[in-house]
TrEMBL record:
One of its GO terms (molecular function) is rRNA (uridine-C5-)-methyltransferase activity. It holds the Pfam family tRNA_U5-meth_tr. Gene3D superfamilies: 2.40.50.1070, Nucleic acid-binding proteins (2.40.50.140), Vaccinia Virus protein VP39 (3.40.50.150). This is Class I SAM-dependent RNA methyltransferase. Keywords: 4Fe-4S, Iron, Iron-sulfur, Metal-binding, Methyltransferase, S-adenosyl-L-methionine, Transferase. It comes from Aristophania vespae.
Amino acid sequence: MTINKSQNWHVIERLGSSGDGACLIDGTLHYVPGVLPGEKVRLSFDGHIKSILELQNASPDRATPSCSLFGLCGGCSLQHVSLPALLKWKTERIVAALKQVGFTNLPDAEQFQSQPKTRRRMDFALQRIDGGIILGLHQRAGNPVNMTECSLLHPDLFKLLDPLRECLAQIGALTGSGGLFVNLLDTGPDLLLEIPAQLSSSDKAKLADFARQANIARISWRSKLGDEPETIVQWKPVFHHFGSVKVAIPPGAFLQVSQDAENALVSAVLKGLPSFNKKDIAHELYAGNGTFSFALGERTRVFAYEGSKDAFEALKLASHGTRVEAHHRDLKRQPLLPQDLKTSRVVILDPPFVGAGKQMDFLAQSAVKDVIYVSCNPNILIKDLMPLQKSGFEVLQVSVIDQFLWSADTETVVTLTRDQKRLKKARKNAC
Ligand SMILES: C[S@@+](CC[C@H](N)C(=O)[O-])C[C@H]1O[C@@H](n2cnc3c(N)ncnc32)[C@H](O)[C@@H]1O
């Protein structure tokens, strides 16, 4: 294929939603990775943009990437941006999203950014190659890259990678590609392997030996996403604390990706709560294993809804002696209806990446006055918050939590109310 080396210079206008720089070339919008607004680039093409040949007007927001795999590994797309500039960009994106919904009179956003090397949850790709195993993240569009260094991963997980490669190389069932889901819990790393073929008894014995040598409490396996994990080895208890409540976390469970971000998220949610009377009930939707539930339970009675059976069971077991009442419910198939929310003082919801969909319409139609919406997807946030805006909700507080460091993903907590008294008071206090 012939590569056309353009002599033309192109100015980067802004960052698009995936973090790539947008520029107009011959009237068509193109996205260029690794650039910043205001920078001028000369590009080579092979139908699409192939590479940056030259860059001028380097932005003051430009930073030296901290990882030598940057550009190859798909885990980070924005290491060429300084962390303060990244947080500012993410915050502007959220403010723009809220304006797009139609909200006006927005409060200043509170901001938090995780520290590097704090990531305690990661979904790795596995690939057998001649002489070993590749264990790392996928390229942006392509094969996995061996993670030989990482600016994101918690050191307690990073130090496991080499021993894991050695162990997995001995696993006969791993003949091609697979996955490895890792959570760093209070009891140490918890591993869930995804390998299509059945593990042999020899594979299981090797994993059991490895678990003891590497002080890993549990290793589970499933053949594909959606299958129930099988515990291969568990030789000591597996648990994690949310506040003072101990939860027996199931294999492959959802956990906020870093402890510092989890703390910031919980604080933002608690800050958004209205005042409670003794008998008030908070409805929490998409509760997971209880990241927010038990902190909420310190303030009031909580009805916590979760669709994953494993997470619901962990939540239910842990909720004894607390004010949290766990409910197993698929909120897509069976959303809470306005009458189900009649007793609700406030609704807190943290939907998955695809959003809450129809549930938002029923929430908007209910009599609920206060909502705290947690989002990891700014595009879906726009869709989900539309029905609330149309039914009279206004934004009381916004927190932008950059827990997905050096990627375009953003976590946000938005407190909304249609209680005019509360709104007036908050705005008066902010003046
Ligand atoms: C973003 S996670 C949040 C979990 C929890 N709030 C936390 O912070 O750890 C979304 C949660 O929604 C649950 N979920 C996904 N689809 C669901 C559905 N249709 N009905 C109910 N829960 C669902 C997932 O199992 C997951 O626990």
